[in-house]
Design goal:
With 97 residues, the protein is an alpha+beta fold. Helices cover 37% and strands 23% of the residues. It has a three-stranded mixed β-sheet with strand order 1-2-3.
């Protein structure tokens, strides 16, 4: 096995992964939202939803059928304590008659 001298190692850039605490918080928020969506919206016909979390802000995309659906989804997201802001990019999709 080949070993580099310590003085050479000290000149190399540090390659340890820096963990961003905000990303851990975002992952926690995303897990909570996923659980809430699955539990609260499982039987509804809200439409298709996608979201992502960045620095405590939740960006929401997808289609909904009724204005009440938008209110229900936003209420669920705002119930998570660590959510700082919600960016709503939901579009209303008309139900086929």
């Amino acid at each position: 096995m080949f070993h580099l001298p310590k003085r050479v190692l000290s000149l190399l850039p540090d390659r340890r992964k820096v963990i961003d605490p905000a990303s851990n918080k975002d992952k926690r928020i995303a897990r909570r939202l996923q659980d809430l969506f699955e539990r609260e919206l499982a039987l509804s016909e809200i439409g298709s939803l996608q979201f992502f979390v960045h620095k405590g802000s939740v960006v929401l995309k997808g289609n909904i059928h009724l204005p009440e659906d938008r209110a229900a989804v936003l209420e669920i997201i705002e119930s998570v304590p660590e959510v700082k802001r919600v960016v709503d990019h939901l579009e209303r999709e008309r139900l086929a008659a």
